[in-house]
Amino acid sequence: MTPADTPALILGARSGIARGIAVALAKRGHPIMLAARNAQRLEADVSDISIRHSVEVSAHDFDVLDVAGHQSFLESLPMKPGIVVCAIGVLGDQEADAGDSAATKLIVESNFLAPCLFLERVATQMSASGRGGHIVGIGSVAGDRGRAKNYVYGSAKAGFAAYLSGLRQKYAASALHVMTVKPGFVRTAMTEGMDLPGPLTTDAEPFAERVVAAMEKGKLVYYDMRWRALMGVITHLPERIFMKTKF
Amino acid sequence: MIKTQTLSGWGRWPQRKCATAPLDPAGFDALPVAAGKGMIARGFGRSYGDIAMNPDLTLLGTARNRILSFDEDTGTLVAEAGLSLTEILDVFVPRGWFPAVTPGTKFVSLAGLIAVDAHGKNHHKVGSFGDHVLWFDLYCADGQIRRCSPEENTALFHATIGGNGLTGHILTVCTKLLSIPSGWVRQTTHVAENLADAIEIFETHNDVTYSVAWIDCLAKGAHRGRSLVFLGEHAAPEELAAAQRDLPFDIPLRKKQRMPMDAPSWALNTYTIRAFNRLYHKKNSQNLAPQLVDYDRYFYPLDAILEWNRLYGRGGFAQYQCALPLAESEAGLTKLLTAISDAGLGSFLAVLKRFGPGAPQRPLSFPMEGYTLALDFQLSPRALTLMTALDEITTDHGGRLYMAKDSRMSQPMLEAGYAEGLPAFRDLRAQSGARGLFQSMQSQRLNL
């Protein structure tokens, strides 16, 4: 059980999934620290979550790409987080990004490199404290198999998932719990305007509620059942067949 | 990000394919607003007709629902205008606060409450929702966002309350909630054998906070206007059963049910409605002792049946709601009820209510001192003919129709009902540039 007064740090707090998770945690009484670039744009979320759920909520400027600033950011927080949720993600534009060195580098750094470096630091701090904690990384089903539609983003997310898996094993014997989340389609600003298949799409709030429930139970990977089934098929297709499909 | 979807009001008629986009203040400059076609903001779509839809561009506002501040001492709430009453009730009833004015559904946004200047069962005591708005921020035709209040941008403030979203997009709202002693209402029922009786009950109990009557619109002769007048007061904790006294704001959770399909069009007819009305009147006449009812069942009985509008079948329905001035109320209502029962058309959801003074400073606000009658008609050529006949009676008696319920009134009907406010409203729209930019199917139909 995670005590209700355990502070939670939400990275990439402007995303729909992050906001949903912040709300689900606030409902349980956790103080919330929201972090994103331009923290002043989080003000409405701060007041909304704190008034609705009567918990302390604060907003903090954080740019994951500023790797040199990671440590000072962690030290600047008003509370030591016992739950860290990383919902940083940049989808990019596959057509434009493929073959563009700067754009590909940005996608890989934002989705993979910089978040991993930050979470490594958090893991070290949490395990050193002896109290352990939860690290929740939001990956993507796009990382399960490279697809023509989004393999720049997908390969970065694949790297992120592998990193989390390693981190989980490294701290398996400690009180530190690392959970990977693989959302399929969730209705948020990121998917706004996309034509999403109804049965495979969920709203951010119920999705976030299930993620937090899974975290509390100590689940290792949170994967929606329908997506697990679908991606199970897709990942097992022989390469020769997969390359001819239109998934 | 434009997405085309079929929209309609709660009456499910008319339905149109509309281009929609999220209502996002950061993206207003980039909106593809066609010259002369305009756009309209939409909340939960609980108005009945075509007031909140525009095929060329309808902006969906319910995602903007964040609470920005709340003063625990005064009950002053500031929130993004897409916040719903459902959420306000969930968050604030447990802390002892309640919306100062609530319509018969809680699936409504703050912006929607302002746009139609919604009224509730306490109109005769506290006025309409607009009377409890301290200020709002309005996105205007010139691209500016203006703070409107009784002191600032006054004309715009008054025109926007009841202005059907036609003066601009309401973005942020400051409203004052009402302090309540518990989540329960003490309800008493009075039986009225005819219209004169019903009016007398309303007039005698003018000091009671909440009052509304269910009226049997098909009863004839000596029973014409037969009603059940429901009176209500917020209950003090001492009145509650011992088990509830310590947690006066805890109310039982209601199971929601969903209307599973469209009812066949023949299911509602004179005979089934007459039979229902007789039974309903009889059943409720037998239990006149005061009852304690939780706020959810008292104020929102129909919200527990999701998609109850399917009861009226696939063809949809129209609600007819008119207000008549006090001096003309009894004569006008008698004629309206006669026309309805003669036609044999009507519904079991017919409501009569005493209005307090209206708000003449708001050009298009609906309530006026007198009585309001609201009832649903399953759509049919006969129903449309009847409603036109009702229009004539309403106009003859100096009354008007509620635009939030309307899907079919004619322009002359609007001009007659809102003769005093319309010139000022149209002037303000023309001068501010709103006329070209903010339009709904209804505003185009009625040349607003």
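qc> Chain A has one domain: 8-242.
qc> done
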